[in-house]
Amino acid sequence: MTARPARTGAVPPPAASGIRVENVSKVFPGEGGGETVALQGADLDIQPGEFISLIGPSGCGKTTLLRLIADLDQPTAGELRLSGLTPREAREARAYGYVFQAPALMDWRTVLQNVTLPLDLSRLAPAEATARARTMLNLVGLEGFEGHRPWQLSGGMQQRVSIARALALNPGLLLMDEPFGALDEITRERLNLELLRLWQETGKTVVFVTHSISEAVFLSTRVVVMTARPGRISDVIDVDLPHPRGVETRGSTRFFELCTAVRERLREGHA
Ligand SMILES: Nc1ncnc2c1ncn2[C@@H]1O[C@H](COP(=O)(O)OP(=O)(O)OP(=O)(O)O)[C@@H](O)[C@H]1O
């Protein structure tokens, strides 16, 4: 077997991705010959560097939309583009990092080895992969835990490892499917702050699925409200809270007003 040469040199930081979702539908075959319209006629334009949250009742197509963007599934109709690339081209170019609801770490690898995994797969020189992984672990506040195994960490720390792993290839886009859903409220608020800091420092585009109204408002530049049966985008709400946002943001009148606005739109969708 011929050894493939290791890549060397820093990978230049990619520009943040813009995303265009045009009249996208996804229909799954259902039980007994029926079908489920998971997403119907979705239109959405995401500018590079935006932080977009998708919120809506269970089954409204949030994960489906994220998976279509990531090329983990294909639309039944319509078109998606990530900075002009098809989802497949974007996936092949490793243009995004994906953070799942559960951290999905490998227990037999150390924290550092979990983060270097995508770098090893892209044949980055080992010394550089290690250096890059350490930088990402510092970015998510896990310096000192490189040699631990995932099972030695709390749920919040594990999720931070999976965020570091998603950032390792320095993608211009981060796709996050309810990453903090299983965490207690205080840990979740702390990770919200860390994610915001990271977003501001790196300028990446983020698409974030959540069930939490306050989380969506706190984090986002825009909140996309979705409704179920069929899954549709029903509203897009601009979040005009100033940056940097911090603990005091959650106590502001404007934060409360925006949460109320999102809640009302969600209620209308449930009616
Ligand atoms: N692979 C699949 N096969 C069949 N139906 C599917 C498949 N994936 C999703 N669905 C259906 O599509 C609809 C949307 O699912 P999706 O997971 O996108 O919703 P969601 O908004 O992310 O829900 P939740 O908030 O509960 O995670 C649901 O009715 C679901 O049952």
TrEMBL record:
Every ABC transporter domain range: 19-253
CDD domains reported in the protein's UniProt record: ABC_NrtD_SsuB_transporters (cd03293)
Annotated coiled-coil segments of the chain: none
Entry annotated with the keyword Transport: yes
GO molecular function term, any single one: ATP binding
Record has Transport as a keyword: yes
Keywords tagged on the record: ATP-binding, Nucleotide-binding, Transport
Protein name, UniProt field: NitT/TauT family transport system ATP-binding protein
Upper taxonomic lineage: Bacteria, Thermotogati, Deinococcota, Deinococci, Deinococcales
